[in-house]
Amino acid sequence: MRRAASTVIILCRHAKIERACLTRGRSTPMPHFLVEYEELGNPEAREEKRADHIAYRKGLGEKMPLAGPLLDDQGDPNGSVVILEAENLKDASDLAASDPFVGHGVLRLVSVRPFRIAAMKPPAAR
Question: Per the database record, which ranges form the YCII-related domain (predicted)?
Answer without folding.
Answer: 33-116
